Amino acid sequence: THTHTPIPRTMGGHGIVLTIAAVAVLLALFLPGTPIDRAVEFDVGPLQELPVNDRLRNAERYCEGIPPPESFLQVGDDELYASLGDGRIGRWLLPLHDTGTDTDTSSKCHVETAVAVGVQRGAVCDGSYASEPLCGRPLGMARLGDNVYVCDAYRGLLVVPLRQLRQREFNATYVPDAVVDGDKVLRFCNVVVAHEDRLFVSDSSQRWRRRDVLYEVWEGRADGRVLTYEPHSGKLNVLAEGLGFANGMVLTDQRDALLVAETTRARITRVSLADGAKQLWAAVPCLPDNLSLVRGKLAVGCSARVAKPFSAFASFGRLPGLRQAILRLVHPSALNWVVPKHGLVLLLDPNNGQLLDSWQDKGGAIVSVVSEVHQVSDTTVVMGSWRDNVLIVMQV
Length: 396
What we know:
Helices cover 12% and strands 38% of the residues. The protein has 396 residues and is mostly beta strands. The two termini are 23 Å apart.
């Protein structure tokens, strides 16, 4: 049983927030504006219980020093592809054997470059703030027929023939940056899911690009969308909108709806494929990232824990004026303390969203953020992270 020493009432979490509020508002009166000028109030719902455990401490850190691997695609039993934080799609041969570091090109740990998504001449692709628009940032991937579709946060939907991906030949095309109902789409292409002859794509923000994702989080608006794309006709349409940072997606067992992670709302929403109707499917005790099926359960990668006894993120959600005032003083990255390092995966019942189990790493000794869980075999999963320069491997 997890126990903790009670915080004195005068120094409780809410008291800390109120103190910060007073200081920020006073200082903000004398400072210039912030990029966030339309923050909104949002509510993540009542905080849930989530007993802490250390199951992620049983995982292994593999390939130290690689660019953060965010999402995965497996081809057969012997190839694992990952979208990397420096703009590449990397490849490992399976099974994985940690025999060195990524800088050792003779080791099985070395990540082969399958595709460099969008490098511009002279660009140094190191995953930095400046390099992202030049080098691209691939995120979710899906296979449809003989092609692999990749969401790139800056260039939209990338189409790579599977044969060329496996042979490491780059001859990709992009879905045109179309306009739907007067709005530019795929400004923040995040996750793609294939179903029959269609693709479903989450577009997380209509204002901010990936490198400024923290502004999107702190602004708190619900302008994420899910779109449908038909490769044979080239049609791109909006299926659902009004989502709080639309992120990871999976199809339901009945194949009649998508389960969509709304990261800034700490919930998963059911979106009907027939008409785009939205319905709350599960409130979750974290900021959900990518979704996947692992050994019959819905695995939810989490960017932050949002649970009892206190969540600063939940408290700030109800104070849009405070968020704007604070960002007159500092960049959002200075507020990372609001979401302490806590590796977390939730395992839900895929039929009803009930929380069945969790894997955790309080303090982030093994992994501080989990973006996605991917099952590579009956006994092994890998986990990615948008923050940590390592691949996580765990036996299950």
